[in-house]
Design a protein that fits this description.
Structural class: alpha/beta
Number of domains: 1
Number of helices: 8
Radius of gyration: 17 Å
CATH class: Alpha Beta
Mean pLDDT: 92
Strand content: 15-25%
Length: 237
């Protein structure tokens, strides 16, 4: 039986970029052996992104749109994941996706519940600038020290079994930059099977978020996750 797949794409102020990028994403999904739906999770855009997304959804029944009133990447991803009702749920960025990864991830269904495209797994190629690569390394160290995670990369593309999303996502407290990180950490602690596939990462446009500004917020967010998990563990005893 052909599996079903929902691809969640958070979008914010992407009115000009979105039409061409969505066309490329849908073309990539044509090569994936799954019945695919795309959820555009528009969040707090100040340009015409909301109207453009609605127009694109009207032109293709595979595309659905969610609207959130405030800019929040993680909240947009959360709403998209919880709105999905398919065998698999994936998240990609509108400027970074791979049909080959989605195909390989779904093909691992007999041995994995969560499949991550890792920038740090053996065989990966991270072609971003030095600062971005060092940022990923530092974040991975924090994951290991603060949350005792063995996962090499929680950001970027991932494919998660729908039943795992249903079991884990409602408990996630993080939004902003850390929704997907906490989702993966919770899946890891619940002993779901996680596989990492080496990714090739190359930025096709300049990043729109400041790494320096994100660092304090990220550290606070990871500490908040650690406290929440510790509190839940004590309550469960």
């Amino acid at each position: 039986m052909t599996p079903s797949l929902t691809v969640v794409v958070p979008i914010h102020n992407e009115a000009e970029f979105l039409p061409g990028a969505l066309t490329r994403l849908l073309a990539a999904l044509d090569g994936v052996a799954a019945t695919s739906t795309v959820i555009l999770a528009e969040n707090g855009s100040s340009d015409d992104t909301a109207a453009v997304a609605n127009r694109l959804a009207m032109a293709d029944r595979r595309v659905k749109v969610l609207h959130l009133p405030t800019p929040d990447y993680g909240a947009a991803m959360r709403h998209g994941f919880l709105a999905a009702n398919t065998d698999w749920v994936a998240n990609v960025d509108i400027d970074y996706f791979s049909g080959e990864f989605l195909t390989e991830a779904i093909g691992l269904g007999d041995e994995a519940d969560v499949v991550l495209a890792s920038k740090r797994a053996p065989g990966a190629e991270d072609r971003r600038g030095l600062v971005r690569r060092l940022g990923t390394l530092a974040f991975n160290v924090l994951l290991r020290v603060l949350l005792r995670s063995r996962v090499s990369d929680t950001h970027g593309m991932k494919v998660i079994r729908g039943s795992v999303v249903a079991a884990v996502a409602p408990a996630v407290i993080s939004t902003k930059d850390l929704f997907d990180t906490e989702l993966v950490i919770r899946a890891e602690r619940a002993r779901y099977r996680i596989r990492e596939i080496p990714a090739v990462v190359e930025e096709i446009r300049q990043t729109r978020s400041s790494l320096i500004k994100r660092v304090p917020r990220t550290v606070r967010g990871l500490l908040r996750i650690r406290r929440a998990l510790a509190d839940e563990a004590r309550t469960a005893r």
